[in-house]
Specification:
This protein folds into 3 domains: 201 residues, Rossmann fold, CATH 3.40.50.720; 90 residues, N-(1-d-carboxylethyl)-l-norvaline Dehydrogenase, domain 2 (Orthogonal Bundle); 110 residues, NAD(P)-binding Rossmann-like Domain (Rossmann fold, 3-Layer(aba) Sandwich). The chain is 44% helix and 16% strand. It starts with a strand and ends with a helix.
Amino acid sequence: MLSVAVCGLGKLGSSIAVVFAASGYKVMGLDVDEKKVRKINNREAPVDETDLHDYLQLPEVMENLTATTKVTEVVSTTDACFFVTPTPSMSDGSFDHTMLLNAITNVAHEVASRHKRNYLFIVNSTVMPTFLNLQVVPTLERILGNLGFELAYKPEFIALGTVIRDLLYPDVLLIGAKTEETAHKLEHFYREVVLHDCQAKKISLVEAELAKISLNCAVTMKISFANQVAMVARKLGADPLHVLSAVGHDHRVGHAALRPGLPFGGPCFPRDNRMFQYVANSVGERAPLAEATDVVNRNLLRACLARVPEHGTVGILGLSYKPNTSHSDESAGLYWYKVMRSRSRKVYAYDPRAPHPNTLEEVLGCDFIFIGCLWPEFKEITVRPETAVLDLTGEVMITKSRTVRHVSEFIREKVAS
């Protein structure tokens, strides 16, 4: 059984490490952050992610997982390294691969110094198409020479807050590899990790790179389509939930991600959609569907602001981009909060986990409230009878003077007026 390293102990990297260790693999975590390494070795979660702390307490994980800041320790005891380092977005939509390429280069140099043959390099970080063939392959060939190497791209389709669950129950094992032998080896590795039978899709490196961002773009397009239908339905006096439920019954469409709701946000969807547009432009193509997806998403954010009364206090319930995470990257709630502050409005915000400036009671006392994230505790809330509440999903039940009503009624009233 392979002994592996996981380079990068953030939310995804730490989760990958504990899942591999729980499956019986010997795992060494690698990170430049001494605090993360120390926490892993002390069986403390280095980041805020659901179930991570509990997994670190499992006997199998305690036995099989260690962490270090030293590349020398990693290479001396492992046969493969999974790279989960950041690839930040640039202003033009492209990705900065500097940290990832530096990590790969450092490991490769140590592999070369130890004369280890055919070491396996696996990239999990989301990258731009052609990065592996045009930058990683030449780098490894230059450093490793006749020692040889194996290279694969294994993107993970996860959401913050459910990373461990998503790793254990994937819809597909997408594997891009330099050779068929490497692809089969990695599939066998993951079959020991996942907890259900799912298809493995083994394709080339560049095909896997493009498939990763294409899948995320497809999901965002579906989200924006659902919200576009919802905006039209509300103006016609129709219930978006009824309309989209009917549409989703067609097997060619399906119900997944087809619901009225908040604009998409977070650390993946927005940037992957912009990167897809960048890649399309770089090869002389346009991506009008991806562009329209962004337009609809932005329009929905702005349309909500038009519903805010000119006077009175404004509350934001939820700054996270989704439940069960503290991340507020490009979230609807954070956007509305910043706009209200820029307009010198009295605005209050609360979130169960994301940093927030106010208490729940302060927000519930406002004249107008945005539901910015569907936290479970927001499913049924009590506000003052005179408070107006905007919930784009129609799922939050608002209790007012002992009367429970869907917010869709409030939306129809606003449109009628």
